Amino acid sequence: MSVPRPYGLLAELTHRCPLHCPYCSNPLALVSRGDELVVGAWIRVLEEAAQLGVLQVGFSGGEPLLYPELPALIAAARRVGLYTNLITSAIGLHDTLLKGLIAAGLDTIQISFQSDGTEQADVIAGTRAHERKIAAAKAVRAAGLPWSANVVLHRNNIGRLGEMIALAEGLGAFRMELANVQFYGWAFANRRELLPTRAQIERADALARSELERLRGRMELIYVLPDYYEKRPKPCLHGWGSRAMTVNPRGDVLPCQAAEAIPGLVFDNVRQKSLGDIWRESEAFNRFRGTEWMPEPCRSCDFKEIDFGGCRCQAAQLAGDAGATDPVCEFSPHRAHVDALLAEIEVQPDGAPQWRHRQEQPGGVL
Amino acid sequence: MPSTPTPPEAIYPKLAAHARLRDDAQSGATMLLYPEGALVLDDTAAEIIKRCDGVRTVETIAAELAGAFEGNAAEIANDVRDCLRDLGERGLVHLNARPL
């Protein structure tokens, strides 16, 4: 099978984070500070990514601002032509650092918000963050760096959708991503607290559609549907090992940022091999590349080149088999797992969420 | 011939700050990069975007394109308007009413 060209690299510089969001997509077992890749290794990763054809790098985490050499990495990425996006909570984005990021050539910055109101947002983040984020967004705008807003939508905040859009609009975001929570990492552990009800989803979908029209040409609105409510799975990554890769803080190269949820999948590490060798040859990337791995009902399905069988991590989590059809699919023999959860949360009383905030593991360093 | 009235001539297109043009060595194409996306541009679109400096008007861009490419000037002007309207709706080009 011919190996496709990768277009995107997600560089998770650190798992350390000042926030404790219960929907964090990081794995439950976080990489500790002492195991993080050093700056020279990251620069090599960026150069090799560009040689492979990667066009875009997202610097993420955890909180990437906690990685001291971040400006040097942005400069290195720009030297090899990569489009650079910083995916951040904006906590710790002081003026000197902001100037350094801009001087290094940062193309755009994505700032997360938890809600529109300080009290609710800080409860979700598990720390006092909201007012600092607003101040940071204002500083970013004043400095002329284009910024986009990101909100993860869930049962506790989805009713504030309109107010959250107004917040981003007022702060001058050029783009806003409204992503219904996807259930990986910490979010999967908290799925019963986070999954919106069907009525909530219907209201949010209608509002998002009208806001998208209202804002057309002024602020780009990306609304990501919650896949548990869909009949067909999302075309996860446009196919495994097809367009994108994630390098985690330790240097493991993952086909998807949630791929550690798949038991038994072995990842290669940039400390031992080049990124190109890993992309082309690693067992983890080739395991679900193309369509040969597919079981029924995917194998004979007309949609197999459209949704690629959905998400491998979700199949592992819900069906106990990463090689199964995504259980979100109406044709999956495991769809009952999804429907059972949807029925369960419909009768769950509203009230103070009982979620478990993301915490560092004992022995981890924040 | 159907007319395409918007964007009108007195518009000064400016490439958005979050969008960046680059040549792609692997494909030989010019690409427009933006967060989590890329457009592969044909020659006409690339030449249009290179001129979206906030100083040239749509009309000026259309005239320059008509000079650079073979073809009917009116058709090229329509193509320029269609291209800019599309980029405007995507937020990749700002259709400013005043020059910078």
**What's the rounded overall pLDDT mean of chain A?**
94
Strand order within the widest beta sheet of chain B: 2-3-4
> Which stretches of chain A are poorly predicted, pLDDT < 50 over at least 5 residues?
362-366
What is the chain-wise order of helices and strands of chain A? EHEHEHEHHEHEHHHEEEHHHHH
Number of helical stretches of at least 4 residues of chain A: 14
Description:
The complex is a heterodimer of chains A (366) and B (100). Chain A is 35% helix and 13% strand. With 366 residues, chain A is an alpha/beta fold. A 9-stranded mixed sheet of chain A has the order 7-6-5-4-3-2-1-8-9. Chain B has helices at 43-50, 58-68, 73-89; strands at residues 12-15, 20-23, 30-34, 37-41, 93-96. Chain B has 3 helices and 5 strands. Chain B starts with 11 loop residues before the first strand and ends with a strand. Chain B is globular, with a radius of gyration of 13 Å. In chain B, 36% of the residues lie in helices and 22% in strands. Classes of the chains: A alpha/beta (366), B alpha+beta (100). Chains A and B meet through loops of A and strand 3 of B.
Main features:
heterodimer, A: alpha/beta, nine-stranded mixed sheet, 9 strands, 13% strand, disordered C terminus, B: 100 residues, alpha+beta, two-stranded antiparallel sheet, 36% helix
Brief summary:
Chain A has 366 residues and is of the alpha/beta class. Chain A contains 14 helices and nine strands. Helices cover 35% and strands 13% of the residues of chain A.
